Amino acid sequence: MEKKYYKSLEELRIAPDEFQNGEMLGDKKSLLLMEQELKQSTGPNRRDFLKLFGFTVASAAVAASCEQPVRKAIPFLIQPEEVTPGKANYYASTFYDGNDYCSILVKVRDGRPIKIEGNTLSAVTGGGTSARTQASVLDLYDNARYREPLNQGQETSWEQIDAEIMNKLGEISGRGGRIVLLSPTLISPSTKAAVDLFKNRYPGTELVQYDTTSASAILKANELSFGKAFIPAYHFDKADVIIGFDADFLGTWLSPVEFTKQYVSKRKLHEGNKAMSRHIHFESGMSLTGSNADKRIVIKPSQQKAYVAQLLLALSGSAAENPEIIKIAEELSTAKGRSLVVSNSQDAETQLMINAINELLGNYGNTLLTDVHLKVRQADDAAMTKLTEEMAQGAVDGIILYDVNPSYDFPDREKWVAGLEKTSLKITFNSVKSETSETANYVCPDHHYLESWNDFEVKTGHYSLAQPAIRHIFNTRQAQESLLKWAGSEKDFRTFIQEYWQQNIYQTDLTGFVSFWNKCVHDGVYVSEKKETPVPALDISAASAIASTNSVIVADDSYQLDLYYNVSVGSGKHANNPWLQELPDPVTKICWDNYAAISQKLADEMGLEDESLITINKLGPFPVVIQPGQESRTVSVALGYGREKGGKSAVGVGVNAYPLMGFAHGSRQLQTIGASIEKVNGKFRLARTQTHHSMEGRQIVRETTLAAYLDNPKSGNEIRDEIKKHLKTIYPKKEYAGLHWGMAIDLNSCIGCNACIVACSAENNVPVVGKEQVLMAREMHWIRIDRYYTGDPENPELIRQPVMCQHCDNAPCENVCPVAATTHSDEGINQMAYNRCIGTRYCNNNCPYKVRRFNFFDYTNADALPGNLYDTEEMTVDLRKLVLNPDVTTRAKGVIEKCSFCIQRIQDKKLKAKIENRPLADGEVITACAQACPSQAIVFGNLNDKESKVSLMFADERNYHVLEELHVLPSVGYLTKVKNTNV
Amino acid sequence: MYVSPIREPLIKGNKDYSQVTRDIMAPMAGKPSKYWYMGMALAGAAALMGAWASYETVFNGIGTWGLNKTIGWAWDITNFVWWVGIGHAGTFISAILLLFRQKWRTSINRSAEAMTLIAIACAGFFPLIHMGRLLLGFFIFPYPNTRDLWVNFNSPLLWDVFAITTYFLVSLVFWYVGLIPDIGTVRDKAKNKIRKAIYGFLSFGWTGSARHWSRHETISLVLAGLAAPLVLSVHTIVSFDFATSVIPGWHTTIFPPYFVSGAIFSGFAMVLTLLIVARKALNLEDYITINHIESMNKIIILTGSIVGIAYLTEFFIAWYSGVEYEQYAFFNRAFGPYAWAYWIMMTCNVITPQLFWFKKIRTSLIATFIISIFVNIGMWFERFVIVVTSLHRDYLPSSWSMYKPTLVEVGLYIGTLGLFFTLFLLFIRVFPVIAIAEVKSVLKSSGEHQKHAHHE
Predict the structure, then answer these.
(1) Shared-domain flag, residues A573 and A714
(2) How do A425-428 and A442-443 pair as beta strands?
(3) Which of A153, A239, A34 is nearest to A442 (CA)?
C-alpha cells in the first residue's frame, strides 16, 4: 500500500520518544504519524480509500460524459493546395438545371460546398441568385441520389455497365435501329460536341430536347418572323414601358435572375435616380411579376390573344376598342425604342403579334436583340410529342434519358410510359431517383453539378464554366464522360472542354491558352465578341392579318385553367429540396403544397372556401385558395408537385398538375379553356406562413406614387417627422464608437423572389421544420417577406416587405431576458448567446416585429437529450448535415434564435481587415440575404461612416423605420415603395 | 334607548377549550374516510397526468404545446398568474387581517395559508416548466461562476424569481410559526410513540410557557408586518412581466393595483370554494360560520368591483391614448376571435360577484359556492385574455396567429390542480385545519357562550 520514502536512515529509524517531545513539526511529524498509522492498520487506510474513491468517481464521470467519440477525424497527411482548415474557399461555377441559368461562386469549407453566392463578374446574372440557385447546394446532399450505377436495379460497376451498354448500343446502331438522347435544352457547347461524338459512333442517334418549362411558341414565332428559331436577348434595363402578357419574367420566365436585375435597375429611385419604368401586366392569376406591376389588368387566358391583337391594331393605327389598350398604346408610342412587350403565350400567332408590336415600337436592336440570343429553352414541344408517338409505335430502340423526367412531367404520361416500356434499351443519367429513372434498365448516375466540369453559353458569346467544388461523393460519373466513354473516347470531360475551348472559343492572344483558361476558370465567365448572323427585317403583315381576325375580346363564361411554375420547386425537379418546399409562395405564402387559386366570385358560386377541395378535369382533389386578384373564372395551379418517386420531401407533397396541360398550336399549353371543375367533399389543410393579409391601416409598408414622390420626396413618409418629434428619452443616447451596423432595404427594389430566405437558411443553418410545424405557425426563417393586399379585392395591389431582426438599439427583447442571453454589441448588433438561453420566450413575446424564432422541438439533433429528434424531412441525416455552415452553431431544442446580421461574416471580414491592418471598406461585409438578392434591395454597412451606402440610404427622405414610434431605435431602415401609377 | 346590536358570535355552540381541541383535531384522528380516499385517488390521478405532461414537455420540448412564433406564452403563464393570485388570500387573511385585528380571520387563516403555500408551489411550477431548457434553469439564479455570467436585473422575470421565492419563504415561515402551538397540542394528544416523536420534533420543544407565548406573539406580529407588503408586492411584480413590455394590452400602468385586487379576489374565491366543502366534510360548521363566509363575500364584492373598474379604465385609456395599436388590442379583446374568452371573463368577474350585494345570496352557501367557482373561472380567463389575446395580434399583422391548447398543456394545468388537492388533502390529515390556539384566544371574547353570558 503506502510506500515509505526517507531521506536518511535516521529519518527512517526515528525514535518514537523524539516525536513525543513535540520538537518535530510539519511534514516530518505527519509522516511519522502516518507511518504509525500504517503499522497499526492491516487493511486499506483512509488515504487509500480516498484515492480509490476519487479514481472511481473520476472514471465514472469520464465514462459517463465522454460518450461521443470523435469519428473519422483524419488529419491531412499532405495538406491540399489552397485548403486552410477553418477558412472558406470560393470557386466560380455555374448553376444550370435545364431551365434556369445562374453564374455563381461556391463557398467551400473544409472540402464541403456549403453555400452558393452570386458571381458579380457575370454580365448576365451580375451577382444575383434565385431561390432555386441558392437551394441547389442542398441537392448535392440529397438522400435520394443514386450512389452506384445500377443494372436492372442491381448495383454494378462502371466497367460492367459500360461494357453491357456499349454492346447494346452497338447492336442497335449496327442493325440501323434508332437511339434517342432525350435532354433538356443543352446550352453547353462541349456537351453538344460530346453528343456529336456519340452520334458519330452510333449512327441513328438523335438528340431530342425536351423542356418542361417551354418557350416553344416564341421559337416558332421567330422562325416565322426571322426564319430562325431563337429567343432574342431581352433588355428590361433599357425599357421605360414594359407590357407583360402573363410572362412571369421576374419569377420563372426564361432568365428571371437576369431580368430581375435589369428590371430593378429601372425601378430604383435613390442614388440620384429620379425616373422609373412603367410596368403594366396582363394576367389571370396573381404572379410574382404581376404583383410587382404598376398596373395589373386581369384577363382571362382565352382573351390574351385578343388583347395582344388589339394592342397591335392600336399601334398600327387601326381602331382598337378596349379603352385600356388604347391608353397603353398611347403610353407605348411615347416610348418608342424604349419599351418592351413580352408574352408567355404558347400560341405562335400571339407571339407573332408580340414580335410585330415590338417591331412597330422600334424595340428590336434596343430592348430586344436579334444578334444576341438567349440560349435557354430551345426545345420544340412538337419534337417531344412526336417522339412519344414514335415510341408508342415501338419505333425507338434505345433511349438515353439525360436529366429529364417525362414519366412525371409529360402531360400524356400514360402514352409516354407505354412507349418507354416498348423501348428495349433505357439508359438514364439521372442522379436522383425519379419516376422515369426508376423504370430504366441502366442507371448511370450523373454527378451533381457541383461535382462536375461543364461549360455554358447562355447568351451568344456569354460563356461560363462550371468546376467541381468537391470530389464526387458517390460512385457516380458525369453524363458527358459516360457519353464520351461510350463513344470510344477515354478523355475526361475537363480535358474535353479545355480542348473544345482552345479550338472554338479561345482567340489567340499574347498570354496563351493556359492563362486564358485559368482566368476563365477563376472568373467563371467569359464574354466574347461573338454575334449571331443578322436576321432580315420583320414583316408585320402576317401578324396584322392575325390581329384583325382575332381582335374581339370574348367574355366567355367557361372555366379556364392557368398552370404556372412557382419560384420554389419550379418544374418539380427540385421537389426533394426541403428548403424550397418550406419556402412560402411569394403571393399566397403557402408552402409544402400546391393548390387551386380561385376568385372569391367562383368560390361563392360553388360554395367553396379556403381549403375546400375541387377536382379539375377529374384530376385532383386540389385544395382551394381564394386569391384576391384572381380572374373570376380562372383556376391557377402550380406545377411541380405531386412527385411519386424521388425522396421524402418530394413524394406526396401536393398534386401533380402536369396531366392538365394541353397541347395545341404545336406547343404544350399552360392555359386551357373549358376546364371542368367539381367540388369534392372534405378539406385539406394548407400550411401558410402568413394568415392575415391586411395591414389594418397601419403605417408599416409606406408607399407613394411616382408623381407624388417627384413632388415631395417625403410623400408617403410624412408621418415620420411627426414621429420623430415625439421621440424623447431620459436616458443618454448610446454612442457607438467605431462600427455601427445597419441595413437599408429599398422596398422599390424588392420583388419578393425569396432568394434571400433560402440564402439565409443556408448561411445560418436555419432548420427545416416540415408542414405540420408550419401549420402551427412555427417556421424558423430568420428573414421573411411580409405581403399585404390593398385596395379592390378583385384586383388588389400587393406590397411586400422583407422583415428580419431590426437590431433595435433600444431593444425590447434585451431587457426582458432574465439570464442576459440576448444583449447588445458595441457595434449595435442585437446578439443571441444560444448557450445561455433557457427558453423563456419572453424576448419573443416582447419583440414588436415578431422576428424571433423558438426551437419548439429538437429540429437539429443538437439537444442534450437523445431520442427526441423532430426531423420530418431527413435534414439531420449525415449526408444532409454536410451542408451545415461550421461557422454557425446549430441550435438545440428550447432555444430562441434570430437574424444575427450574419455576425460570422462580419467577424470574418473584420479579421481580414485587421490582418491587413486597414479599416473595413464599405460594402466589404455583405450579409447572406444582401448577397443573394438579384435586385440589390438590401444594403448592409456601417452607419457611422456617413459616406457608406447604407448611411446615404438612411439619409434619403424615403427612409423610415417600422414602428419607429415605439422608440426601439431599429437599425433596419426601409425606403418607401413608389409605384408609377398615375401617368 | 338605542341598544347596539350584538355581533354574531365567531364560534358557535357553547364550547370550552377542550371541546375546541377535540373538534378541530377530529379530522386528524383515526383512519381517513372513504371520501378522503376518493378525493386522494382523483387528485392523485390528476397529478399523474401532470407528471406525464411534464415528461412530454421536458423530453420532447415546448413544441408539444400549442404555442407558435407569435404566441410565446399561453396556458403556462395564464396558470402561473392564476395560481399566484390564488396564493394571495392566505397571507392577506393572516397578515393584513391580523394587523387590522380582524378576529374572524382566526377560523380560516390556517387553511387559507396552507392553500397559499400549495398554490404558490403550483404557480412556481409553471415558470419552471415553461422554460425551453429546464435543465439549465439554474442560470436564472445569480450564483458566482468562473465565466462571470450574471443575470439580468432589468428583467421582470428575474424580479419574479425573487418575488415568488421571498413570498413563498415568508409565507411558509409565517404559517409554520403559527402552527407551532398547535403542533404542541397534537403532540400532547398523540397516543402513539412515533406520532409523538414526529410532532415533538416539529413542535420545536413548545411548552406553552408564558415566555414561549410571548415570543410566539412577537414573531407572529413581525412576520405579519413582513408579509403584509409582500401581499401587495408579489402580484405587483408579476404584473410587471406584462406592464414593462411593449406589447399593446400588456403595456399598461394600471396593472399593479389591478393585479393585486384581482389576486385577492381570486384568492378569496378559492378559499371559499375549499372551505365550504371542508367545513361540511370536517364538521367544522361551528368554527367556520356563515358570518365568515359573508365577510369573505364582502371582500369579493370590493375586489371584484375594483377589477371591473380596472377593465373599464383599460378600455377608456386605450381610446383616450389615441394609439392605434392599443385601441386595436382592446377592440380585438372584446370583438376579436377570442371575444368568447373576454365575455366569460366579464360575466364571471364583473357581473356575478355583484350578486353578493343581496344579503340572501351572500349568506347562502350554495350561491356562494357557485359564484366562487365562477370567480375562479373568470380570473383564469382574465389571465388568458391578457396573455393570449394581446400576443396573438400585436403590431405587424403579418405575424398574427391563433392559439389552441394541446392535451399536454391541459395536462399540466390538471396536474397542478391534482397536486393542489393532493397536498390539501394531506394537509387536512397532518395539521389542524383551524388554528386551535388562535381560535381559543377569541373564544372568550367572541364565542357564543361568552357573548350570551355577557349580555344576559
Answers:
(1) no
(2) parallel
(3) A153
Q: Within a domain: residue A467?
A: no
Does A719 lie in the same domain as A675?
A: no
Please report the pLDDT score of residue A62 as a whole number: 64
Domain of residue A812, residue span: 703-979
| Amino acid at the residue A475 | N
Run of H or E residues at A786: strand A784-790
Q: What pLDDT, on the 0 to 100 scale, is given for residue B281?
A: 87
Structural domain ending residue among the three candidates A37, A65, A93: A65
Which DSSP category does A556 fall into?
-
All three cell numbers of A878: 449525415
User: Across chain B, how many H-helices and E-strands are there?
Assistant: 19, 0
Per DSSP, what are the bridge partners of residue A832?
A: A822
As averages over each run of 10 residues, the pLDDT of chain A (983 residues) reads 68 56 58 68 69 76 58 70 84 92 92 92 92 94 92 91 90 88 93 92 90 91 90 93 94 93 91 88 93 93 91 84 88 91 92 92 91 92 91 90 92 90 91 90 93 93 92 92 90 91 86 90 91 86 86 84 92 92 94 93 92 91 93 93 90 92 88 90 93 89 92 91 89 89 95 95 94 94 94 89 95 94 94 93 95 94 89 91 93 94 94 94 94 94 94 94 93 94 69
- Whether residue A621 is preceded by a cis peptide bond, meaning omega within 30 degrees of 0, is yes
Grid cell 408617403 in the structure block, residue: A716
Q: In A, which residues are within 8 Å of B149 by CB distance?
A: 819-820, 836
In a domain, residue A496? The reply is: no
Distance CA A952, CA B443 (A): 83
Q: Does residue A684 sit in the same domain as residue A720? A: no
Q: Tell me, what's the ipTM?
A: 0.92
Q: Is A526 on the interface with B (CB under 8 A)?
A: no
Locate A210 and state its grid cell. 425536351
Do the Cβ atoms of B92 and B264 come closer than 8 Å? yes
Task: Name residue A459's beta-bridge partners.
Answer: A374, A462
| Cα(A754)–Cα(A642) distance, integer angstroms | 22
Of B59, B133, B245, the CB nearest to A868: B59
- The neighbour count for residue A909, using CB atoms within 10 Å, is 15
Are A618 and A723 part of one and the same domain? no
Do residues A786 and A651 both lie within one domain? Answer: no
Tell how strand A241-245 and strand A339-343 pair up: parallel
Contact A895 B133 (CB under 8 A): yes
Same domain, A922 and A803: yes
The SS3 call for residue A620 is: strand
Chain B residue numbers with beta carbons less than 8 Å from the beta carbon of A839 are 62, 131-133
| Residues with Cβ within 8 Å of residue A877, at least 6 apart in sequence | A143
Task: Please tell me the CATH superfamily of domain B33-449, with its number.
Answer: Formate dehydrogenase/DMSO reductase domain (1.20.1630.10)
Tell me which H or E stretch contains A794.
none
A285 and A355 in one domain? yes
Question: By CB neighbour count within 10 A (0-12 exposed, 13-18 middle, 19+ buried), where does B89 fall?
Answer: buried
Cα distances (angstroms) measured from residue A120 to each of A228, A373, A764, A950: 32, 21, 22, 20
Residue A592 and residue A582 in contact, taking contact as beta carbons nearer than 8 Å:
yes
Last residue of a domain, one of A320, A345, A374: A374
Phi, psi at A723, each rounded to 5°? -65, -45
Residues in B touching A836 (Cβ below 8 Å): 139, 149
Residue pair B300/B125 in contact (Cβ under 8 Å)? The answer is: no
For residue B12, what are the CA distances in angstroms to A587, A921, B275? 75, 88, 17
Quote the number of domains for chain A: 4
| CATH at A230 | 3.40.228.10
Contact B60 A857 (CB under 8 A): yes
Torsions phi, psi for A402 (to 5 deg): -110, 105
The CA-CA-CA angle for residues A546, A550, A552, to 5°, reads 155
